Amino acid sequence: MVPAGFSGCYVAVVTPMLADGSIDWPAWVRLVEFHAANGTAGLVVGGTTGESPTITELELAELVLQAKSLAAGRLQIIAGAGTNSTASTVTKVQELSALQPDGLLLVTPAYNRPTQEGLYQHYAAAAAASSVPLMLYNVPGRTAVDLLPETVARLAQLPRIVAIKEAVASLARIRELRQLCPPSFQILSGDDPTVRDAMACGACGVVSVTANVAPALMSAMIAAAGRGEAAEAQRIDASLAGLHQQLFVESNPIPVKWALARMGLIGDTLRLPLTELSARYHVDVLAALRQAHITLAPAS
Questions:
Q1: Would you say residue 287 has pLDDT above 80?
Q2: Domains of the chain and any CATH numbers
Q3: CA 171 to CA 205: how far, in whole Å?
Q4: Is the N or the C terminus of the chain less surrounded, counting Cβ atoms within 10 Å?
């Protein structure tokens, strides 16, 4: 059953690729089915983990359409629509809205470092262009701009803007967002290591990298935290702690795609300038997978 609004465990899903760099469509089918069978609330398609800088608009549209068809109401589908140009974001929002996903994820504009007023106007233009709900995405570590809580509170008053993926690893940030924004505005953590505590501070879920490889465990942990079962959430999270760390030893999604390849779900390919996980990290990532009791494919 697809959840109401945006709550629960969402996966910032990878984009599987063949050795020649083209999209591996059979692997895409496997991934969607894998998440539908393991408690995932929804897939964020074409985000950072999906290598958004290097997938084309046509590829993104096909990924969204196939995911919608395969999910058949079992998963929400959220498409990554943000760029660092307001004009191109508006166009992308219009085009992706026409595909009728459950929502769009809009990252803050990277590199050009707008002011808070510029961020407000950027998102307001996107909201006016959209026919589906929008989730803001704040990740200063990648974009070099921080969408501050008071700006989020202004944006939360606009039609279509209903949620935020907040990747600042600060419980004070989650508390401030919860205090300033309407009760109906949904806050999802974008930081796997702190999401359990973020849930106690007002978050209602996560957009997770770890859930690419451990969807059932992440979903169970989020559900336990949402019910206020702190001890159970902590128990589950302890088995995931290694993954939370090791899946970021190199730039995301390098480690998570390597891990998924070891599970037999996808191949190792990334598009340049990203390259395969350095050999010195293989043992540690494998150890984290085993700590979480992840089933690995037989060695070839």
A1: yes
A2: 8-238 (3.20.20.70)
A3: 14
A4: C
